[in-house]
């Protein structure tokens, strides 16, 4: 099974949401704080209208046949942004460097309206008005002088030619000279201020605008960081990932458990989590035919929830009327005894395989019906009193009996122990160490019928699941399925709670 693009995007967005929200809020607050620290900023705007018709050229008869308005505007905007213009303005309004005035001023224009706007932003209200008007006043003068450069060069060349011209050519040259002199006199730059700035308006701080701007920055950074994290993240985040890597079907999806909760198939959490384990138990029972079924519960790495899964599965099978034995073969990090509240000094696997106790002496019967669990247990009623649940199955637990760093398969009587466990049981569940940590699962694979792999989304690394898939090819038992834990999906519980309202 492969994961669709929609699922990948949905999972990535869901994981990115908390970080993105934090960055959006932080960025919005930061921008607002910076604007407050920077103080108020004022804006003043003056406008100048352009004329595409040169009066001097018309009168002198030198008007071109066609004038491109777009090119006129482009040339005018280039002059309006010229550093030379702001040098001239700085000389008139002082104090201030030309570069500072240029940075304060933004120039906008459109050939649709033939109007250029000069907007000046400054922390000084009066300064904004003064500079805006000065730029608008100086622009026509500067544009006229630029236009006269070519006229004056032509006049200079014509006068020089007239001084040495023959008598037959002089009348024509004198006529051209009069036209150029008239054009020089009438050239105005074809730009007229039409709106002067009377006052400046405050544009910053603006809480709403600044918040939107900051939020947009936070959103962009949030998505970029989340995207980078998604690229670098090597963990699995969906059932499809797990199935594709292990090449085995997901047979159960367990929602995230409450903090410090272990047994959730009975007690106050049963309504929410009982059905998930009941479906898993039903699947396991379908795999059992006539002989006792021996299954091993493992994971690729530690802290993926295999022991809690094995314990809750054992209870769910008991609730279905099965005779269940749960054995803790994870001798390096035993936890089944702690989950069920069995005293740590109780005998278990280590004592049985060393012939210090018999299996009958080490097995701990667990009564789900009444008095076995103390009032403080998670299995008690909300009022602290045990209750009769009408369960017909039986559950016996074989704790580890301590911890050991030696492999169980190297201890005496270890292989025979599994056979003894299944003599009076319908299902034997063996909690094993993580498959990639020890050789225990590989050794036990010849003694069990099926192996179920527990994988926690957001925890199990992809490379570990790939390694486990390769290792499982040498197991003598096949993978019966994958149990995904810590899933964000809780649709079934939401469905039933909605029906109860």
Explain this structure to me?
It is a single chain. The protein has 18 helices and 13 strands. It is an alpha/beta fold. Strand 2 and strand 3 (115-122) form a beta hairpin. The radius of gyration is 43 Å and the shape is rod-shaped. The strands form two sheets. The chain has an eight-stranded mixed beta sheet, sandwiched between helices. The model is unreliable at 55-62, 370-388 and 492-501 (pLDDT under 50). Helices cover 48% and strands 16% of the residues.
Quick structural overview:
This protein has 501 residues and is of the alpha/beta class.
C-alpha Rg, in Å? Answer: 43 Å
Strand content: 15-25%
Q: In order across it, which strands form the biggest sheet?
A: 6-13-12-7-11-8-10-9
Cα-to-Cα separation, first versus last residue = 36 Å
Task: Offer a few descriptive terms.
501 residues; alpha/beta; 18 helices; 13 strands; disordered C terminus
List the helices and strands and how they pair.
Blueprint: H1 5-38, E1 41-50, H2 55-60, H3 69-80, H4 83-93, H5 98-104, E2 105-110, E3 115-122, H6 125-164, H7 170-186, E4 191-195, E5 201-204, H8 207-232, H9 239-246, E6 250-255, H10 270-287, E7 293-299, H11 306-319, E8 323-328, H12 336-340, H13 349-353, H14 359-362, E9 364-366, E10 394-398, H15 414-421, E11 427-431, H16 440-444, E12 450-456, H17 462-472, E13 478-487, H18 491-500
Parallel strand pairs: 6-13, 7-11, 7-12, 8-10, 8-11, 12-13
Antiparallel strand pairs: 1-3, 1-4, 1-5, 2-3, 9-10
Helix pairs in contact: 1-8, 4-5, 4-6, 6-7, 9-17, 10-11
């Amino acid at each position: 099974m492969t994961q669709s693009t929609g699922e990948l995007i949905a999972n990535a967005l869901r994981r990115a949401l908390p970080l993105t929200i934090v960055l959006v809020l932080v960025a919005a607050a930061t921008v607002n704080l910076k604007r407050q620290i920077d103080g108020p900023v004022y804006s003043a705007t003056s406008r100048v209208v352009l004329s595409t018709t040169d009066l001097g050229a018309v009168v002198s008869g030198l008007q071109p046949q066609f004038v491109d308005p777009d090119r006129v505007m482009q040339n005018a905007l280039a002059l309006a942004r010229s550093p030379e213009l702001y040098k001239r303005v700085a000389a008139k309004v002082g104090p201030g460097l030309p570069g500072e005035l240029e940075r304060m001023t933004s120039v906008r224009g459109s050939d649709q309206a033939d109007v250029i706007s000069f907007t000046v932003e400054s922390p000084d209200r009066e300064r904004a008005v003064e500079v805006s008007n000065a730029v608008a006043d100086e622009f026509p003068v500067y544009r006229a002088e630029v236009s006269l450069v070519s006229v004056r060069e032509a006049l200079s060349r014509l006068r020089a030619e007239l001084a040495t011209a023959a008598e037959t050519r002089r009348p024509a040259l004198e006529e051209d000279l009069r036209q150029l002199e008239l054009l020089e006199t009438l050239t105005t730059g074809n730009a007229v201020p039409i709106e002067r700035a009377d006052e400046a308006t405050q544009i910053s701080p603006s809480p709403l605008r600044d918040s939107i701007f900051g939020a947009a920055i936070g959103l962009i950074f949030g998505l970029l960081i989340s995207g980078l994290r998604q690229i670098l993240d090597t963990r699995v985040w969906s059932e499809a990932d797990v199935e594709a890597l292990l090449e085995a079907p997901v047979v159960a999806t367990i929602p995230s458990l409450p903090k410090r909760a272990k047994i959730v198939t009975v007690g106050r959490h049963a309504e929410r989590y009982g059905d998930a384990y009941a479906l898993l138990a039903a699947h396991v029972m379908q795999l059992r035919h006539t002989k006792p079924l021996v299954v091993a519960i493992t994971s690729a790495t530690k802290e993926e929830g295999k022991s809690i899964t094995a314990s809750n599965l054992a209870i769910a099978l008991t609730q279905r009327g099965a005779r269940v034995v749960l054995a803790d073969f994870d001798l390096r990090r035993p936890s089944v005894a702690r989950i069920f509240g069995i005293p740590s000094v109780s005998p278990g696997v280590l004592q049985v395989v060393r012939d210090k106790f018999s299996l009958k002496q080490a097995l701990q019967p667990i009564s789900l019906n009444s008095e076995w669990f103390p009032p403080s247990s998670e299995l008690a009623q909300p009022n602290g009193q045990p209750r009769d649940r009408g369960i017909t199955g039986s559950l016996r637990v074989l704790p580890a009996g301590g911890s050991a760093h030696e492999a169980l398969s190297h201890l005496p009587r270890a292989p025979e122990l599994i056979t003894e466990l299944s003599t009076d049981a319908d299902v034997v569940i063996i909690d094993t160490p993580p498959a990639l940590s020890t050789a225990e699962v590989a050794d036990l694979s010849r003694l069990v019928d099926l192996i179920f792999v527990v994988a926690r989304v957001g925890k199990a690394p992809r490379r570990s699941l790939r390694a486990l898939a390769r290792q499982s090819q040498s197991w003598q038992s096949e993978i019966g399925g994958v149990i995904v834990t810590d899933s964000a999906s809780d649709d079934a519980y939401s469905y039933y709670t909605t029906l109860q309202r």
